[in-house]
Amino acid sequence: MQTSKTIDYYFAPQSPWTYLGHSRFAAIAAAAGAAVRVRPIDLGSVFPVSGGLPLGKRAPQRQAYRLVDLARCSRHLGLPLNTKPKFFPVASDDAARVIIAVDMHDGTEAAMRMCAAVFAAVWVQERNIGDPKVLDSLVVECGLSPKRAEQSQSQAVQERYEAYTQEAIDIQVFGAPSYVIDGEIFWGQDRLDFVERALRP
């Protein structure tokens, strides 16, 4: 039996953890018949409110463990991942806006496809998602209109990006990825088992 639940999917395009969970999350949502609302957010605005720190400002032992855990999760999930990709840290606002533009014009399924392309660009393909030309290419590779990149610079898209970020802050999302079901936050791709349970009738 399928549910009619909705999952608000908060993430940052440069997040390796979002990449590691994305395909599994998409499959879980589809199997449950759940609707996904794609919500790219600006962690640069979320962290000062939530107490989070940019990677470079975290304690050395936390940075070291992150690399170990990324490699561990990559092996466990059978997903390729460069733990130190060429273009990271990377500005991700433009990528977030492209995903929003795709969502607005092409719908959730296309936006989820665009997400997958952006995540893989950073963590598998060594591509710079801060480069407009790379984003243009990713849009076309996803079979979408080249106009999406241009449309992503619209005021409507920017307002939606800001609204999603504020929405995340208001409901106390503090990291990426976060999956929110009926007001309950599930933080991290390692909590997808709980997401799956929450979607059961």
UniProtKB/TrEMBL annotation:
Catalytic-site annotation from UniProt: S15
Catalysed conversion reaction: 2-hydroxychromene-2-carboxylate = (3E)-4-(2-hydroxyphenyl)-2-oxobut-3-enoate
Enzyme class name: isomerase
UniProt keyword annotations, A-Z: Isomerase
EC number(s) on file: 5.99.1.4
Coiled coil stretches, renumbered: none
GO molecular function, one term: 2-hydroxychromene-2-carboxylate isomerase activity
UniProt record similarity statement: Belongs to the GST superfamily. NadH family.
Annotated protein name in UniProt: 2-hydroxychromene-2-carboxylate isomerase
